[in-house]
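Hi L.,

You mentioned the student needs an example of a multi-chain input paired with its predicted structure. This one should do, with 1163 residues in total across all chains.
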Amino acid sequence: MKVTLKVWRQKNAKAAGEFKTYTSPELNPNMSFLEMLDVLNEELSNRGEEPVAFDHDCREGICGTCALVINGTPHGPHKGVTTCQTYMRSFKDGDQLIIEPWRAGPFPIIKDLVCDRKSFDRIQQAGGFITVRTGSAPDANSIPVPKGNSDLAMDAAQCIGCGACVAACKNASAMLFVAAKVSHLGLMPQGQPERYRRVKAMVEKMDTEGFGACTVTGSCEAVCPKEISLDFIARLNRDYAVSLLKGEPKRLKGGGAG
Amino acid sequence: MATLNSNIPSGPLSQKWENHKFSSKLINPANKRKYKIIVVGAGLAGSSTSATLAELGYEVHNFVFHDSPRRAHSVAAQGGINAAKNYQNDGDSVHRLFYDTIKGGDYRAREANVHRLAEVSVNIIDQCAAQGVPFAREYGGLLDNRSFGGAQVSRTFYARGQTGQQLLLGAYSALNKMIGAGGVISHTHSEMLDLVVVNGHAKGIIVRDLQTGGIHRHSADAIVLATGGYGNVFNLSTYARGSNVTASWRAYKRGATFSNPCYTQIHPTCIPVSGEYQSKLTLMSESLRNDGRIWVPKRKEDAKKAPADIAESDRDYYLERMYSAFGNLAPRDVASRAAKTVCDEGRGIGSTGLGVYLDFAESIRRLGEDKVRERYGNLFSMYHEITNENAYTSPMRIYPAVHYTMGGLWVDYNLMSNLPGLFVLGEANFSDHGANRLGASALMQGLSDGYFVLPNTIATYLSTVKTGGRPGTEIGEFKEAEENVQGFIRRATSGKGSRTPDSFHKQLGKLMWEHCGMARNKAGLEKGISLISDLREEYRTNLRVLGDAENWNQQLEKAARVGDFIELGELMCRDALMREESCGGHFREEYQYTAADSEVQQGIVNVGDVKRRDDQFAFVAAWEFPESADKAPILNKEPLVYEEVKMGTRSYK
Amino acid sequence: MNLLLRLWRSSLGKKYVMAFTGIALFGFVIGHLVGNLQVFGNPDLINTYAHFLKSKPGLIWGARIGLLLMVSLHFAAAVTLTLANRAARPIPYAGGSAPGSTWKSRHAMVSGLVILAFVVYHLLHYTALVGGINGTGKDFSLLKTTLPGSNDVVPDVYAMMILGFKVWWVTAFYLIAQALLFLHLGHGLASMFQSLGLRNHTWWPRISAFARATSLVIFLGYASIPIAVLVGGMGSEYAQRALAQTSVNEAK
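Structure written out for the whole complex:
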């Protein structure tokens, strides 16, 4: 099979980009989408054209690096998989495929199809953790976690930080990502002491990074390779409301004699 | 010759670590912040150690080539992490975990390190659970366990099929906390391309900013490499495409010794290769072997038949037949080699004949499809995505693939290499797995090194370093190292050759698989060395890198990594050639049990099992880069002295 | 920081504002519908009701100011959020956008703006009784009637409604606005629960069904009036009489 590829090419963050059209070499339907791009790149290189830059790493759907919008859908046509787990058998001979990078203000383009997602890291640095100094933890079985909570936390914790939710959302909102992180920790007993501090810090960082707001269109859930549920966004909304209502503790003056 | 002092503490095995912690020098809290430590890599070992060192008060700089520390390939580990918690009351203990690991490594690991690993394993689970890692739990809310290859107890903790990601997210969150608090400065999209050695001590690194192409110098009081394994030397492997040996290799070329490079782990349960275009082999978690049965047809005429058309009596459940005590849970090296053996006999299945069946029919009958789906649903759907086949109705096709490298930079008990100031953690070092790694122990080692070992042992070195004595980056050694990097980039981007880095990588991979893969022999290895040497020459003269060095350039990144892989490949073959015995993942066809051996007659081992030669090869090989590149590398030996365990014949029958 | 300010500065906080003001406006839509449906009774029924409301200036002005505040907040939050949302996606996709979403969820801003325009028109039409815009050429403020059992001369709301909806384009605009309100509520009523965090996968199907059913009932309720007038000829005779009475009133 062969396909026509309309690929976004952009030299660097400052340069203007444009679409270039390529005809793929002969393909095997059992190739992964990224292997198809490997083959294209090998051919481009042999012609002396610079290969298409695209982000990828583990190629088994867990590192969250690959990030292509294929015909308007982040991670391509299949539900619950990443770009690297998309196979050419999902397309027909002669199809035209438009390949674009994630597009969002907080994800500036680095080159071609590669964007910079450090804004996700910064949100997590603001509060996406449970403070536990190495060596200070009690025996693991001294903190029982109801299986239901643990399973639900695991559902949220599956997030691979790929950013497809932002890419799909018409508002480039990071709510599903932040909700997954906040819910994972907030559902565990270990996460309770910092629960409301965490949600406030992460939401505020999310806003200052320039992500849009949630208008409940559901695009994020539809493209999430780990099928993370909108339920978690409701949970985030709830926790944030509680954190606002709790307010800041009153600061007392002075200390003791010590 | 390099000086190799393993610095194993004295005293009984089970007290060495405690004694060592007590007798080691400490650094007072006010002085800690005056020491700057560079950590390269942010997988389990790199993230956990960066966070912990920063908590202790050191100034930590973390470097990763990824856009985020969370992308490191630890993320992909599926099955689980071992710990000697004995929560199952099934006879587990620190000593048993230690013993299983030493035996699993075919008596080629350092005893004291492995015992420490087993001791620390229990703290890891506590630490991770406190961080909120959502381990699988029982209805009572306590932690669940499962059994894993090479062990007869259930000591593996897991989080669905993605334990690696969950543990990494835990370590990453600890790292994030310290980045947010200012204790760690994070340098992402920054690839280490050289190590700077000043007066024999590792004092800095040269880094390329992958976004801008800028080459930067960084100095520090100590350098920690946690840069993972080198399995991508085979091109096709279960590693991430970006995994590479560059940081370790550049350190080797600056004087750090490289140990046991030929010890590679071939994992038995991966999806077979389907075509020339293939870029990656996907692992199907070893946990599948708990409920799946491995078989091939008894007769090679049946190999092309559909599995449903092969009668039960015509099937050979060869692992159950050969290793009755462990059956389908035999260790990875044993299971992989058995698969190769049956395929070599022409009984392999699938279009290439390089495959065996992993069959769930019996489990589905016994447990019901729902239960199987609950346990392995994500793996079955992954298998379906890749192969378009339904493993609920017909057996999975699997074949061994390169998965892990036990070799790595040589380190002493303190995890310091022979270059003072250079520490190596996790898969990048050689220390704990000997010649074969058991399932669910890589995560354990990464976190043990990162959270608990290095943060203690680094003080033994730093206490000898004067505060404020760190060299400036303007000195000659930094200049020379930067020039070395710049020189490579200039040569690569101005080369007039015609071949891409990828094409070299593919060729190297095939060559390595053929000559230094699952079975090795003298003639093949010698041929491999000569072919690699030709490939290296062609790489030097015929490489083509498009694009410029001032922007994001993945081809340039690859060119550097592939160049290092080619050089490493040669060293691996040399190591395999030198090691005239079989042990764990290293199988020399000349050294295997035959029907004439008494162990076979006594029923301890099978014909074809690996045959160690402890009298001559009970040592760690530590290869040293020669004075000039045209000379052969120098072999140093660290004898393996076993104080408590007796080196025995490894039996899983 | 002040709680309200913090609420307004946060994207989640603004969504809470959207949800709470939305609930208030939803209440109004229901109340107004109940009032309007009285048109299907005797003309005196709705005229009495209208007169009752007018005779309680405290109540009606309180409600008007409250509603104005709700609409303003709902509008201001929507506009500022939309601007921020557009800024977050500076370059659109060439291959299509917003996979897996419904039209109504993507276009709540558009439907909201049309509804707002309609509300302004509707107020001028029936509340301020601006003569030139009702399309009949008549001045509705002249439509008067007396309620049974009293001598009070009150506005003839019934006649206004009948005459108003006799104009096809008024009815068309009304129906378009109601259709958009149907979509707006279909999205908004469910999203309210989401924004306030009051959902999970057990309740979501029920919440969605509630949103769909309620918005449909509201649409049918509102749309039944102009259709009954325009198609069913409801109240024609009464309106003709009232109109004739206008010229009498005018002559006086």
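You could point out the following to them. Chain A touches chain C through 53 residues (CB under 8 Å). Strands of chain A lie at 4-9, 18-23, 68-70, 73-74, 96-101, 109-111, 114-115.

Best wishes,
N.
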